[in-house]
Specification:
mainly alpha; de novo design (two linked rop proteins); 4 helices; Transmembrane protein 14A; transmembrane; membrane; transmembrane helix; TMEM14
Length: about 110
């Protein structure tokens, strides 16, 4: 079971709900819930097949890119910098997972 992936999905989903409660952005809530769902579904797919990491990689890369651009523009750590950093950290973990599964055959 991909606990890290499910945790990442839960944080993204919870963050979108928290952001909605603070700012009231409905579009941001919908986008955050959608990305959280994609991350959760990606974690589910990785749980079933350790080689099936494409959706998890795409979701984390997308969120890291979007929030990285927002962070660069706003210079605010919360939430853009935190989410971008978390997504990049998750991406590096996924790449090490790919290395472990595909190259070393674990």
């Amino acid at each position: 079971m991909d606990l890290i992936g499910f945790g990442y999905a839960a944080l993204v989903t919870f963050g979108s709900i928290l952001g909605y409660k603070r700012r009231g952005g409905v579009l941001s809530l919908i986008a955050g819930l959608f990305v959280g769902f994609l991350a959760g579904y990606g974690a589910y797919r990785v749980s079933n097949d350790k080689r099936d990491v494409k959706l998890s990689l795409f979701t984390a890369f997308f969120l890291a890119t979007i929030m990285g651009v927002r962070f660069k523009r706003s210079k605010k750590i919360m939430p853009a910098g935190l989410v971008a950093g978390l997504s990049e950290h998750f991406l590096s973990g996924q790449f090490s997972h790919i290395w472990e599964v595909q190259v070393q055959g674990s």
